[in-house]
Amino acid sequence: MSVTVKDVAKKAGVATSTVSRVINNSSSISEATKKKVNQVMLELGYVPNVAARNLGKGKTNTIALVLPPLKCKEEMSIPFFLEIIESINSEAQNFGISIALAISTNFDDLLHNIKRMHKQKQVDGFILLYSNIGDPVVDYLYKNSLNFTLVGLPCKNEDNIAYVDNDNQLLGKQATEHLINNGHRNIIFITNRINENVHFERFFGYQKAMAMAKLPHQDAINIENPEDFSQIEAVFKNTNATAAVIIEDLLAFRAIQYFNSIGYAVPEKISVISFNNTIFSSLTRPYITNIDISIELLGKYSLHKLIEQMEGKKSHGLKIVVPHHLIEKETVIKLAAT
């Protein structure tokens, strides 16, 4: 026979309404009474019906993690997304929060999913794991004053949107400077996230480092499809490039395979530095020199910023900047002075 609120109230010597207030952590109940009732619930093995309690409050205790449109299976397996989802889910368990995923291959369908979640009250808030130019999802969430957090610098309204991010411009600058400090002068930048803020910030950092060293920078090479790699051989020849900054380490992993296939061995002919430091940076030799962006903290803090909104608490600032650090591995070599 299951234990009820009445059983707890009887043994604790309080009214059933008092037990309910303790369960809801009401400020009208003294700490001594809360302690006594909680101890009785523990002794009797009483587990509050969280779902019913939240229903009464109009809450679901579920949040949605929103991924950018993913067009193929390879994009769906980008390790950054897998690692940050794991981080958020692990932290959410500490708060009794469940996770739902919003995934689609295009923004129209993604927006439709978000609208349905909102109107059907399926979730209490949203964490967007990207920041994209012209994103209709963030526009919808912002215009309807919904609870949401971005992982990434907002493309607009940055003074009014809660977000967690690295200093990606500094990341791009420091990655490029690492190559310059190792004697490289002809450096290219390769991306596959041309419409995301993370691209602009890291590319600006690359440009800044090159300009400060009085070196010519190149236009970003955009790799949206496997066949786009074919343009790189001509770029190597035209620029005499000896090094590449690559936007994230799954793309770096694929690029290194391509470089080797056309006779540009890494790091002997082309040095490579990338970002994120996920599993792909150490899958095969040479291990990819990387800037670790603390994905676990990005996930953890994005959830905390969302919970602040869900609980109506005053936020301690709208943004959190997560630290990063360089991890030297095997894909950057020092060039001999000429």
From TrEMBL:
GO terms for molecular function: DNA-binding transcription factor activity; transcription cis-regulatory region binding. InterPro entries: HTH_LacI, LacI/GalR-like_sensor, Lambda_DNA-bd_dom_sf, Peripla_BP_I. Residues 3-57 form the HTH lacI-type domain. Keywords: DNA-binding, Transcription, Transcription regulation. SMART domains: HTH_LACI (SM00354). Pfam families: LacI, Peripla_BP_3. It comes from the Bacteria. This is LacI family transcriptional regulator. It comes from Affinibrenneria salicis.
